[in-house]
Write the structure tokens for this entry.
Amino acid sequence: MSDIRPIKRALLSVSDKTGLIDFARALQQRGVSLVSTGGTRKAIADAGIAVTDVSDVTGFPEMMDGRVKTLHPKVHGGLLAIRENPEHEAAMLAHGIEPIDLLVVNLYPFEATVARQAGWEETIENIDIGGPAMIRAAAKNHEDVAVVVDASDYQAILDAMDASGGSPLALRKKLAQKAYARTAAYDAAISNWLARALAIATPEYRAVGGKLSEPMRYGENPHQHAGFYLTGETRPGVATARQLQGKQLSYNNVNDTDAAFELVAEFDPARAAAVAIIKHANPCGVAEGASLKEAYLRAQACDPVSAFGGIVALNRKLDAAAASEIVKIFTEVIIAPDADEAAIALVAAKKNLRLLLTGGLPDPRAPGLTVRSVAGGLLFQSRDNAMVDDMPLKVVTKRAPTEQELADLIFAFRIVKHVKSNAIVYVKNGATVGIGAGQMSRVDSSRIAASKAAEAAKAVGAAESWAKGSVVASDAFFPFADGLLAAAEAGATAVIQPGGSMRDDEVIKAADEAGLAMVMTGHRHFRH
């Protein structure tokens, strides 16, 4: 028996009416009888297309503000009945149920309602019940029924009808998989919204869902498959950005660009221009300046070798002066809240350079979730939204930091939050001068950062390491004094760290003996 199923009768009920009229008309022209509901039926009828109201099929009017309209045996029987099954055929005949060969449903805009921060009652009313029920029914019976949940699949149905006179099984299976994925993502959005609204930090069941933004050429490495999925969260960043030019973002580009923009958002654009340069999800240079150009040049000077092929994030509108400097070396991505026309023109000359404009900065204090997969499970945690500005800074040494040291300590602690652990950051006059990331030993991170500072100074002919007279930030406490002493040996004069070690007294004593000022924040910033 052929796996082609003719489409003689279709039920259409859509919230997003993009392409609806053209599709309905095309179905009618191919001899399909149309059934519809509410606003969808009105839109189709107003376009002069013959359509039957679902109430005329069920014998019941829409009721309870539209909550009950398709939850009826004459709808679900028409979707779930197995064709050529004698029992099912007899039941359909006995109860006057006609088969539905094509279901076209997209759901109430729940995710969009949440995104615009609607109230509780309005959000609840945008939870679709009949839609998911019909979608799941049709998808289960994909041996006989085609289900469409996305307007982008309208043409595939029409093409199949023209080519074969109906829907082939391979297409119905593909549409069924998409349908179940859509209802799963929809339910995930609802359950996660309820968990947030009810302040349930660790619900018994946790679901995640997203819509494919684009398949990628590969993942971290060429032998890995990858796709970029959007969750509907409106937090400004790579997921919401408008890409003005350049080739497709890679998996690593997306990951690094997100890291860069989250870091630069720590710096208030009203206070100063700030630029972060990221390589492999770690900052290789961060600086503030009177202008973006100045901030960029100072950030690049921290580690000009690593800056090559990096991601550049800015906290202000990209201008021509900054753009002219950035394009002088190979850069993968520039991400900024906005850009002026002169800057856009300068970047356009580099055809492979991606320029992303987000329309704003993410709020570092905003709550949210992060998720990571492990074998057999998922790790969820709240976003690290702690900011040094809100922390009670405690001076624990005999010497208090100077005003300049304190400003640099705060600057450094903003950055160390975004460096892979173990993390050490040297800062001088509002710019990083050495960064040590991702080492198994904190003292090794300190030595690497000091070495980077010496190399950067040597590259420009400076007489001494840029670590001389700098301050240093550690993402977690010093378990021993050796990491602190390595910073002192490099020339650092002040330290900021969370504190909380069993040997804090030993570390404080070592700082006093070295003449260092030390501040404790009480907040750790591990990033793995």
